Amino acid sequence: MLYFVFITCELYIEKRTLELYNAEMNTLLLQSPSQLPLHLKSLRKSRKMTQADMAKRLQITQERYSKIERNPQLIATGRLLEILGHLGVDVLLKLRPPESSRMPTSTPTPTRRGEDW
Questions:
Q1: How far, in Å, CA of 39 to CA of 14, rounded?
Q2: What is the pLDDT of residue 27?
Q3: DSSP states of 52-77 as a string?
Q4: Cα 19 from Cα 59, distance rounded (Å)
Q5: CB-CB neighbours of 19 under 10 Å
């Protein structure tokens, strides 16, 4: 029963997040790699695209795109920017005021064959 409650809660969060993307939200805050999978999935769904649609645009398999969407820290930055471009997202780096600047609490996970975070 606990498993069912967890799934229901996860689906509710995903549904609420998708509603926010559909409500003409034009700014998303990304502060950690753990937020990226939900952003990618929600943005794709808000654009009414399937994983197969994205895979076709990127010239990869749907299975590969699914892995990327679940674990985007394993791909090169250039590939991530390409995916965001297909989702209609521009990346803006905004400087924090000096007093709120802080070092990241985690280090990027090493990836295979020289791919960068």
A1: 10
A2: 81
A3: HHHHHHHTS-HHHHHHHHH-GGGS-H
A4: 29
A5: 12
Q: Where are the domains of the chain?
A: 35-90
pLDDT per residue as tens digits for the range 100-109: 656 555 555 5
Query: Could you tell me which CATH number the domain at 35-90 has?
Result: 1.10.260.40
Rounded Cα distance, 89 and 35, in Å: 15
d(CA 116, CA 78): 9
CA distance 34 to 73: 9
Q: With contact defined as beta carbons under 8 Å apart, do 45 and 89 qualify?
A: no
The amino acid occupying position 107 is T
Please identify which residue in the block is written with the tokens 């926010």: 20
What is the pLDDT, as a whole number, of residue 103? 59
